[in-house]
Amino acid sequence: MSRTQENTRILLARRPHGAPKPDDFRVVTESRPEPGEGEVLVETLYLSIDPYMRGRMNDVKSYVPPYEIGGLMGGGAVGRIVKSCSPDIHEDTIVEGMLGWQQFAVAKPRHLRIVDPRIAPISTALGILGMPGLTAYFGLLELCKPQPGETVVVSAASGAVGSVVGQLAKLKGCRTIGFVGSEEKAAYVKDELGYDATLNYRVIADLQKEMSELCPDGVDVYFDNVGGPITDAVLDNLSQHARVALCGQISQYNNTRPEMGPRNLWKLIVTRSRVEGFLVTDFGQRYAEGISALAGWLADGTLRYREDIVQGIESAPAAFIRMLEGENFGKLLVRVDTPE
Ligand code: NAP
User: Fold this and answer.
1) Could you read off the pLDDT of 200-215 as tens digits, one per residue?
2) What is the pTM of this model?
3) DSSP for 13-54?
4) Does any ligand 1 atom lie closer than 6 A to the CB of residue 24?
């Protein structure tokens, strides 16, 4: 069988206990699937590696069903249509969709979004012009409604979502403060993304104190990607009528037992603050609006982005493990090349 007749796929071998390990995944090579009537065959070019995938590895009830043991690791990808059995979409079209961790996927055109390579590099359809960018756009602008002069704090500030949140807040005339996990990330978010200040949570001993010194008038908006002690420190420093968007809690995803929750919720009472969780899919009807706004700001140089790209589909599990340790620097992607 020639290489292009094969399909390398990454399966969930077992449910991780705590931090995922390489043995929790299995790499298999199967024959390339064939599209049926009305379907297309997509060759993966980029896989998206995202924090939410950790939650789907657990057998718990959530907003989406868990991955099955022995089943494909699901997730977003960008690829090229190499065979079309549909009148709706032709070969060579670049598309984005939930294609999973595999070299080739059969899909129905209605489940795919066409990506225009003239607008931006196609990989951005998984980052700033895709799910993470939309999360930042709707989470910040719709839930938090940042006003000029307000202080906006973002955790995981250098990441796929956080990097966009900080730049959008700046665009709205806010003062922006980002939590990061290294000095290199701190320099990037300040110098490249325009954040006003950064906090490296790995080296600061007293986050509460540092926050209160940096935000003497309090935090008006907190976009939370992380949870845990960082969130405790921010909640302790909210201003009156602050808005907190709960986007993610990555510091908790590998926990085998839930951590003790925040004890300072009374701060929400005295500051009359609002905490709201959301999923980007809540705004599914408005994705075109979000992509168009983000693409405009990308084209005129208002927004910048950074990608962390690893090579080869077999690298996906290690990249995923690395991200949960905070070691990715930018939107994490796997470049998948199928040799002829
Ligand atoms: P990302 O920020 O590009 O990558 C994850 C980053 O999280 C790491 O680089 C690391 O940055 C930080 N991190 C990891 N472990 C940490 C820990 N224990 N404590 C503090 N920080 C830690 O990932 P992303 O795709 O943009 O996702 C960010 C968050 O948004 C995740 O929680 C994700 O689940 C959530 N999300 C939610 C939605 C939604 O619809 N609600 C959609 C997309 C994403 P540092 O080195 O700076 O710590």
Assistant:
1) 999 999 999 999 999 9
2) 0.97
3) -S--SSS--GGGEEEEEEEPP---TT-EEEEEEEEE--THHH
4) no
